[in-house]
Write a structure and sequence with these properties.
The complex is a heterodimer of chains A (112) and B (111). Chain A is mainly beta and 112 residues long. Chain A has no helices and eleven strands. The radius of gyration of chain A is 13 Å and the shape is globular. The chains are: A mainly beta (112), B mainly beta (111). The interface between A and B is medium-sized, with 30 and 23 residues.
């Protein structure tokens, strides 16, 4: 099946710890995105990548980092600098930044 | 990107058509209207999009007014599984890919 997978479904972070969220797609899409969703709110863009080895900051990039070494993978690291990381994290992909985005199932990050 | 306005909540009887309105009075000529929905604790699901013509697919129909200032998403025969938050989003073909999700409309389908 073609699609977007995110792992894990739930992730727990201790104070001062970096954690990495996985996002993989087998749709052969060039563009990939990371969004954050807080309870009762809409999605906010963290980072996006239009092509391999290139990425740009979104609206709320502080405290996050990404890499795009392979077309199918776009991992997101939540660093210790992100003081309020508890949220639902969503990965999406599209053929290009002007095309329809398709979303993964999400990872819920909780702070211990 | 143009701002959208949607009612916060709507109810619909199972088996009836659900008509979800969206106002986007500041939409510009190159901006598309997209609809997504999000079932609780899942990723958003793409439904349909259009520029100025009405569109239909296996999930829904999208009716865009002639002046493009508003649109309506129609689910022709709503089921309980259609209960979700529905987001109307306006985005241009020249943007960076950022989708602006507002508060959306919570649709409750009732038996």
């Amino acid at each position: 099946d073609g699609g977007i997978t995110q792992s894990p479904k739930y992730l727990f972070r201790k104070e001062g710890q970096n954690v990495t969220l996985s996002c993989e797609q087998n749709l052969n899409h060039d563009a990939m995105y990371w969004y954050r969703q807080d309870p009762g709110q809409g999605l906010r863009l963290i980072y996006y990548s239009q092509i391999v080895n290139d990425f740009q900051k979104g609206d709320i990039a502080e405290g996050y980092s990404v890499s795009r070494e392979k077309k199918e993978s776009f991992p997101l690291t939540v660093t210790s600098a992100q003081k309020n990381p508890t949220a639902f994290y969503l990965c999406a992909s599209s053929w290009g930044t002007a095309e329809t985005q398709y979303f993964g199932p999400g990872t819920r990050l909780l702070v211990l | 990107d143009a701002k959208t306005t949607q009612p916060p909540s709507m109810d619909c009887a199972e088996g009836r058509a659900a008509n979800l309105p969206c106002n986007h009075s500041t939409i510009s000529g190159n901006e598309y209207v997209y609809w997504y929905r999000q079932i609780h604790s899942q990723g958003p699901q793409y439904i349909i999009h259009g520029l100025k013509n009405n569109e239909t697919n296996e999930m829904a129909s999208l009716i865009i007014t002639e002046d493009r200032k508003s649109s309506t998403l129609i689910l022709p025969h709503a089921t309980l599984r259609d209960t979700a938050v529905y987001y109307c989003i306006v985005t241009s073909s020249s943007n960076t890919g950022k989708l602006i999700f507002g508060q959306g409309t919570t649709l409750q389908v009732k038996p």
